[in-house]
Specification:
The chain is an alpha/beta fold. Helices cover about 45% and strands about 15% of the residues. It has two domains: about 180 residues, Rossmann fold (3-Layer(aba) Sandwich), CATH 3.40.50.720; about 90 residues, N-(1-d-carboxylethyl)-l-norvaline Dehydrogenase, domain 2.
C-alpha cells in the first residue's frame, strides 16, 4: 500500500477546485495554486460552496465543513510544494502550457512526487518527456463536476512505472472514485466514445432535425443518458469540447471528430456554457 498525505493542485478553476475539494473531503492536506490571487480566492469560494451545500442537505456539520476547509491552502507560488506526495495539474488544455507547468513542478517537487495531469485528451508521454521523472508522470482524469462524478481515468504514459499507476489507483479509491486504467490514446476512453455523440448532436441541430432541448430530451428518455449532449457541453464548457474535438481530429484524422463550425463560432462569441451564462442554453447569473 502506498501512503499519501499531502497533495498539490495546479489550477483553481472549476476542475481544479473541484479536485481540491474531493481530496480535502477525503482527508488529504491540499495546496491549491493559481497564477493570481483572485483565481485562488474564487477557487476557495467554490470549495466553500460545495461544502455548504452538503451542510444545507444535512450531509455534514458546520464543524466538519471547517475541518475540510482547514485542509486546503490557496497560494500563488510554489511555496508548500517541497513536501507534496502527488501534484494534480488542472490548467488549460494546451500542451505547451501543461509542459511548462510540468517543467516547473519537476524543479520544485521532491523526486518522490508523482506528477499527474487532469488532461482529457493530450499526450501523457509528451508531458513526461518535459521532466526528468517520466516514470512518475501519469494521467489522472477526473470528470466534471469532480465532487459528483465517480469515474477517474488513470492513464500511464510510455515510461510510467507500475508503482506510479498503483499509487494513483489507490489515491482514486481513497477518494471513493472508480479508477479505470486505460491506454494512452487521443480522448482516452470516455471522450473517444462520447465526443462523436456530441458532435453528431450539433450537426443534427444545424440540420434542423430537432431543437437542442428536444435532442437532449431524446437522449435522456430514449437512450438512457443522465444528461443530454448540449446540457453536458454547457456544463463542461463549449471551449473544452472544442479543444478535445480538435485534438482528437488532429490525432485520428477521422471526420467523426471534425468540430462543426457552430462550436468555433460559439467559442469566438463567448458562448462557453454555464461559466459564461450562455452556451447552447441561457443561464441566470448567480447572485
Amino acid at each position: 500500500m502506498v501512503w499519501l498525505s499531502k497533495i498539490g493542485v495546479i489550477g483553481a478553476g472549476a476542475m481544479g477546485h473541484g479536485i481540491a475539494e474531493v481530496l480535502a473531503f477525503s482527508g488529504f492536506k491540499v495546496v491549491m495554486k493559481d497564477i493570481e490571487d483572485r483565481f485562488v480566492q474564487a477557487g476557495m469560494k467554490g470549495i466553500d460552496g460545495i461544502l455548504q451545500d452538503r451542510v444545507a442537505k444535512g450531509k455534514m456539520t458546520p464543524e466538519q465543513k471547517k475541518q475540510v476547509m482547514d485542509r486546503v491552502t490557496g497560494i500563488t507560488t510554489y511555496d508548500g510544494f517541497d513536501d507534496v506526495d502527488v501534484v494534480i495539474e488542472a490548467v488549460l488544455e494546451v500542451i505547451d502550457v501543461k509542459k511548462k507547468v510540468f517543467k516547473e513542478l519537476d524543479q520544485v517537487c521532491p523526486q518522490k512526487t508523482i506528477l499527474a495531469t487532469n488532461t482529457s485528451s493530450l499526450s501523457i508521454s509528451e508531458m513526461g518527456a518535459a521532466t526528468k521523472r517520466p516514470r512518475k508522470v501519469i494521467g489522472m482524469h477526473f470528470f466534471n463536476p469532480a465532487p459528483a462524478m465517480k469515474l477517474v481515468e488513470v492513464v500511464p504514459g510510455m515510461d510510467t512505472s507500475q508503482d506510479t499507476v498503483d499509487a494513483i489507483v489507490e489515491l482514486a479509491e481513497k477518494c471513493k472514485k472508480i479508477p479505470v486504467v486505460v491506454k494512452e490514446s487521443p480522448g482516452f476512453l470516455v471522450n473517444r466514445l462520447l465526443m462523436p455523440v456530441l458532435l453528431e448532436a450539433v450537426r443534427a441541430l444545424d440540420e434542423g432535425i430537432a431543437p437542442a432541448r428536444d435532442i437532449d430530451l431524446a437522449m435522456k428518455a430514449g437512450a438512457g443518458f443522465p444528461m443530454g449532449p448540449f446540457e453536458l457541453a454547457d456544463m463542461v464548457g463549449v471551449d473544452i469540447c472544442l479543444e478535445v474535438a480538435e485534438t482528437m481530429h488532429q490525432q485520428f484524422g477521422d471526420p467523426r471528430f471534425a468540430p462543426p463550425p457552430r462550436l468555433r463560432n460559439m467559442v469566438k462569441s463567448g458562448r462557453l456554457g454555464r461559466k459564461t451564462g450562455r452556451g447552447f442554453y441561457e443561464y441566470a447569473k448567480e447572485e
